[in-house]
TrEMBL record, chain A:
The chain crosses the membrane at residues 34-54, 290-312, 324-341, 382-401, 422-451, 478-499. InterPro entries: MetI-like (IPR000515), MetI-like_sf (IPR035906). This is ABC transporter permease. It comes from Marivivens donghaensis. Belongs to the binding-protein-dependent transport system permease family. CysTW subfamily.
TrEMBL record, chain B:
GO terms for molecular function: ATP binding. Keywords: ATP-binding, Cell membrane, Membrane, Nucleotide-binding, Translocase, Transport. Belongs to the ABC transporter superfamily. Spermidine/putrescine importer (TC 3.A.1.11.1) family. It comes from the Bacteria. This is Spermidine/putrescine import ATP-binding protein PotA. InterPro entries: AAA+_ATPase, ABC_SmlMolc_Importer, ABC_transporter-like_ATP-bd, ABC_transporter-like_CS, Mo/tungstate-bd_C_term_dom, P-loop_NTPase, PotA-like, Transp-assoc_OB_typ2. Part of the ABC transporter complex PotABCD involved in spermidine/putrescine import. Responsible for energy coupling to the transport system. Residues 11-242 form the ABC transporter domain. It is an enzyme of class 7 (translocase). It catalyses: ATP + H2O + polyamine-[polyamine-binding protein]Side 1 = ADP + phosphate + polyamineSide 2 + [polyamine-binding protein]Side 1. Its EC number is 7.6.2.11. The gene is potA.
Length: 512, 366
């Protein structure tokens, strides 16, 4: 006879398997069932919510376009000292020429220009103008020279055979690289490299390879020693003199990695300089100001909602059910009309010649030439948003107040507390969880609010979310929008954490 | 200190009426006078007006008519927080956001007592209910019985002369309730405070009180010490409400001083003691306690009227036997006999003869 209770090892089930294992097996079915029940929702949220957000947040650091478009330049720039005050050397420009010519074939240079323009304004037009010129560089001289020397150099079929040869490829690294890049672009565009003329930049690369002393097999030998050496640096600077500006090159170098902190730096009003990130000029700093304004105004709106909502919730929770239900419908009435309609109504009411100003003037509180500016500024945003978000404060407050036992206040009074003391010492602390829940709701909703500030906020009443929307839909700087959004998300999570430490998330009740 | 007139009528209800809707009276013409130090229980079914009376006394409801006096002073216009009445609520109403000690200190704080005095009083009150070590806990961390003790301590900590308790033991299980019944009476008597206790549990009322006021339909039906209430109910409601009771209906046949003969609806005639019947021909309900019914004919006086009874059911309850009989056409006649060695266990189906002493059979209003 074995005594399972006296042994020192793990507890065993009746059939001798460890009890934990047995329990686990018994619970597995339940767990699988539970998982199956939530699986559709989980999948839905994953596909429509988590994945897009993750993708969006990733955009805030993504920078593939620079190394993908200018792979050779990025490598060549590694040796360039961006503090030298001079543009890079000829070597770099040669690599840049190949990259740029290839990019121009796919029109990728304009996208790259737009991308870099976020970091340094004006780059975009430099890329564009040179994009128009790069086909007309004097490098057709090399093409003509090679074709003059031997007509076989004009034949794309011949080229394709040469480049398939390992000995050629290793003897002519720049040529092989340029040719391979060109073939890749043609293949992507669905063209046949055997039908197309070999572009100037391949001949240019071939010249530079041969001039460097390469001795390739197969190719008909050409003596290039007497040929003119065309400076690509000069060609680029002729096309647009900004290429001589080291700042452009510093920018390209600073953003040459596949990931960048540039968007985040931008969102906290930093800009890249040759010495690294530095604060923008005072009049260009907007985002930190906007973040602070968003926080302060959201707090103000939350405060207004508490002030206005608390008495209403108190009244509602103390009325008999029938009357309370009727009044609750009035509280929920705003939900029945479209947000846009309500916001537009505020425009009518609050504008300079609007109803409220007219009444104030008529009563004589304000003079006619001194009407209050109630809209298209921070006032308008706070008034309209308080109105819109008030139900989100009243509802949790009401449901928490409903659960406060009326005998608490009676007990306090029976012990000698007057009405105010009974309220403040006993009733109010028990309603704090409702304030907490309402505040979190209102604050988080208002911090991301967009439509109302856009319509009634004017210039100084807009939120950071309006800026995000602008970058998503107008300036198309999605990276910056993603960075701003990430910061907002982190801020909200941080505040939530602080709130948890100060108030305690257990103290939040939505009722019950 | 010699008892004064005010001491004999420390709490007074003088023709108090209460209506919520202006159409019906919840409390009808209530008159009650309590001496100082008494433990009085208001007992009644729900809706009988007992809680309303308590709330009027506490000041949470106002009397529609009449006067409520404490110590000779009318308190009709004194707000609840100035009445100085301790109160224990049905669900204890301990403040959940304060510790036990803070709960107890609350009435002292609003009375602006100094810190050291406060702490001493709180500790004394906690010790009194044997909860001295629980000052730092939150109410939610206490069991129901412990919360009950704290609620009691909190109602007493500011030394009120009058304490009101609104069904304070309703949420406790039976054993704990019995223990707390004893505790509460002990503390109340030790401190000599006047207590008004509201309950719908008659056992609680009988075991705890000096006097019990039985409420029904907005009136006090009977106000008497527990034994009197049980043994000498003044009307059929009280007889029904307090304890178990057998009721037979009939008409007074003859009445003679302390005795009357009642002809039951089924035809038999029994002896009874007239309580609130006065002349022959009146309809009456006679009430006999199940334990006062005699099944052994030899113990009855020879001229006593007896009734035939058929045994329907015998229930063994441990300390007692409970037998259901068919008597005078009714099938709910109960007899309780003590589980003694010589006691007969009646077999269902047998027919016996039962009787009682005339003074145990009370002829009440119909």
């Amino acid at each position: 006879m074995t005594d399972t209770t006296s042994q020192s090892g793990p507890m065993l089930a009746a059939d001798g398997t460890p009890l934990k294992k047995s329990l686990h097996r018994a619970q597995r079915r339940q767990k699988v069932r539970a998982l199956m029940l939530i699986a559709p929702l989980l999948l839905f949220i994953l596909v429509t919510f988590i994945a897009p957000i993750f993708d969006m947040l990733l955009r805030s650091v993504e920078n593939d376009i620079v190394p993908d478009t200018l792979p050779r330049t990025v490598v060549a720039l590694q040796d360039w000292d961006n503090a030298s005050g001079e543009a890079p050397d000829e070597e770099t420009f040669r690599a840049f020429y190949t990259d740029f010519a290839l990019a121009e074939e796919q029109k990728a240079h304009t996208r790259l220009g737009s991308r870099l323009n976020f970091e340094m304004s004006g780059i975009s037009s430099v890329f564009r103008s040179t994009g128009r010129d790069v086909g007309k560089f004097d490098t057709d001289y090399y093409t003509d020279q090679f074709v003059d020397a031997d007509e076989v150099y004009e034949d794309p079929v011949q080229w394709s055979e040469w480049m398939a040869d390992d000995g050629v490829a290793s003897a002519l690294p720049q040529t092989a690289d340029a040719y391979a890049g060109w073939v890749k672009v043609l293949n992507e565009e669905g063209d046949d490299p055997l039908d197309e003329d070999i572009p100037d930049f391949v001949y240019t690369a071939l010249y530079h390879d041969l001039a460097a002393g390469a001795n390739p097999p197969v190719l008909p030998s050409v003596d290039v020693s007497g040929w003119d050496d065309i400076s690509l640096k000069e060609q680029f600077i002729d096309s647009n003199e900004d290429w001589a500006d080291p700042d452009i090159w510093a920018t390209i170098k600073a953003f040459s990695g596949p990931y960048t902190a540039g968007y985040f730096a931008n969102s906290i009003d930093l800009q890249s300089t040759p010495e690294g990130f530095a604060q923008r000029d005072e009049d260009e700093r907007i985002y930190i100001k906007l973040f602070i304004r968003t926080m302060v105004m959201s707090l103000a709106i939350t405060g207004m909602c508490i002030l206005l909502g608390y008495p209403i919730a108190y009244l509602l929770s103390h009325l008999p059910a029938r009357k309370a239900n009727l009044l609750m419908i009035l509280v929920l009435l705003p939900f029945w009309t479209s947000l846009l309609v309500r916001t537009s109504a505020w425009k009518v009411l609050l504008q300079n010649q609007g109803v409220i100003n007219d009444i104030l003037v008529w009563i004589g509180i304000v003079s006619d030439d001194n009407r209050l500016a109630l809209i298209n500024n921070a006032n308008g945003t706070i008034i309209a948003m308080t109105h819109i978000l008030l139900p989100f404060m009243i509802l949790p407050l009401f449901s928490v107040m409903k659960t406060i036992n009326p005998s608490y206040v009676r007990a306090a009074k029976s012990m000698g507390a007057n009405d105010w003391t009974a309220f403040w010492r006993v009733y109010f602390p028990n309603s704090v969880p409702g304030i907490g829940a309402g505040s979190i709701l209102v604050f988080i909703l208002s911090i991301g609010y967009y439509i109302t500030p856009e319509l009634v906020g004017g210039v100084d009443g807009v939120f950071i979310s309006n800026r995000i929307a602008y970058h998503i839909s107008s300036s198309l700087n999605w990276g910056l929008a993603a960075a701003l959004g990430s910061i907002l998300l982190v801020l909200v999570l941080g505040l939530y954490y602080v709130y948890d430490r100060v108030v305690g998330i257990d103290n939040v009740k939505l009722g019950g | 200190m010699a008892p004064t007139a005010a001491d004999n009528a420390f709490v007074e209800f003088d023709r108090v009426q209460k209506s919520y809707d202006g159409e019906t009276l919840v409390v009808k013409d209530l008159n009650l006078s309590m001496p100082r130090g008494e433990f009085l229980t208001m007992l009644g079914p729900s809706g009988s007006g007992k809680t309303t009376c308590l709330m009027m006394l506490a000041g949470f409801e106002t009397a529609t008519h009449g006067d409520i006096r404490i110590g000779g002073t009318s308190i009709n216009h004194i707000p609840p927080h100035k009445r100085g009445i301790g109160m224990v609520f049905q669900n204890y109403a301990l403040f959940p956001h304060m510790t036990v000690a803070e709960n107890l200190a609350f009435p002292l704080e609003v009375r602006k007592l100094g810190k050291s005095e406060r702490e001493a009083k709180v500790q004394r009150a906690l010790d009194m209910v044997q909860m001295g070590k629980f000052g730092g806990r939150r109410p939610a961390q206490l069991s129901g019985g412990q919360q009950q003790r704290i609620a009691l301590a909190r109602a007493l900590v500011f030394e009120p002369e009058l304490v009101l308790m609104d069904e304070p033991l309703g949420a406790l299980d039976k054993q704990l309730r019995e223990h707390m019944q004893f505790e509460i009476t002990r503390i109340a008597h030790n401190l000599g405070i006047t207590t008004v206790y509201v309950t719908h549990d008659q056992t609680e009322a009988l075991t705890m009180s000096d006097r019990v006021a039985v409420f029904d339909d907005g009136r006090i039906q009977q106000l008497a010490p527990p034994d009197e209430l049980y043994e000498a109910p003044q009307n059929s409601f009280v007889a029904q409400f307090i304890g178990e009771n057998n009721t037979l209906t009939g008409v007074i046949k003859s009445i003679d001083g302390g005795r009357c003969a009642v002809q039951l609806d089924s035809g038999e005639v029994i002896d009874a003691m007239p309580v609130n019947v006065s002349k022959p021909g009146e309809r009456t309900k006679v009430s006999i306690r199940p334990e006062r019914v005699e099944i052994n004919k030899s113990r009855l006086s020879p001229d006593a009227h007896t009734l035939k009874a058929e045994v329907l059911e015998f229930i063994y309850m441990g300390d007692i036997f409970r037998t259901r009989l068919r008597v005078a056409g009714r099938e709910d006649f109960i007899v309780k006999t003590r589980n003694a060695p010589d006691q007969v266990r009646l077999q269902p189906g047998t027919t016996i003869e039962i009787g009682w002493l005339p003074e145990d059979c009370r002829a009440l209003d119909a």
